């Protein structure tokens, strides 16, 4: 009787906790949607920040994120393949996995400070290359962990079949194992991209921001997230409205990327 009562109490408390969490989430999303949508105008997408728009910010944010992805994906996937297919349960592979887990949970601002000391302070100015480096460092451990875990789910029989057919190890990995795990690996890449595209802290110390449209990565580079942070602190209402509009657009982008990742996961069969 006591066990049944305890079970009901825990069930009620868990349900209440879930409802409270969902309530706060919908409150935040409803407020963001209401204030963000009402602040969006056509000029928001056609003008640069200096003229009250975010065109240059969107281009700058995605340019840095995509270039960081181009650096992080081959490094992360290669490292994940090494850990699972070559390192396996060796001591070195275990150390790399531990370090990767630590880096995955490391505060983004710490990574920003590290890259600042490495790529900003020596040259004496903020620059887009430093922002790309910071975002890539954030992506790499996520991709390593995802690739390692997805390859672990591939049955050993597939590898043995490849060996029986006379395939070399690298061909078996690339043509059999990686193909079998490609959906999970791609999902990890998408989710890691969704994380970095909404990051602010590392860019505050690396790329900073630029009010004008530019493709020059050697100087301060436009950033949507940093601009949201700055605009929200300005005293004029126009700047705060633009911050709400940019926040809603960024949230919608991140949500869309996450939904794509979830869709691939659900339909991986």
Explained architecture:
- The protein has 269 residues and is mainly α.
- The protein has one domain (40-266): MetI-like fold (Orthogonal Bundle), CATH 1.10.3720.10.
- The protein is built from 12 helices and no strands.
- The chain has helices at 2-39, 42-46, 55-87, 91-104, 108-120, 128-152, 156-164, 169-180, 182-196, 201-204, 224-231, 237-266.
- Helix 3 packs antiparallel against helix 4 and helix 3 runs parallel beside helix 6 (128-152).
- The two termini are 44 Å apart.
- The model has no long low-confidence stretch (mean pLDDT 88).
Question: Would you summarize the structure shown here?
Answer:
The protein is mainly alpha-helical. The protein has helices spanning 2-39, 42-46, 55-87, 91-104, 108-120, 128-152, 156-164, 169-180, 182-196, 201-204, 224-231, 237-266.
Keywords:
MetI-like fold; 12 helices; 269 residues; mainly alpha
What is the number of helical segments per DSSP (H or I, 4+ residues)?
A: 12
Number of strands: 0
Helix content: over 70%
Low-confidence stretches: none
List the topology elements.
Blueprint: H1 2-39, H2 42-46, H3 55-87, H4 91-104, H5 108-120, H6 128-152, H7 156-164, H8 169-180, H9 182-196, H10 201-204, H11 224-231, H12 237-266
Helix pairs in contact: 1-12, 3-4, 3-6, 3-9, 4-6, 5-6, 6-9, 7-8, 9-12, 11-12
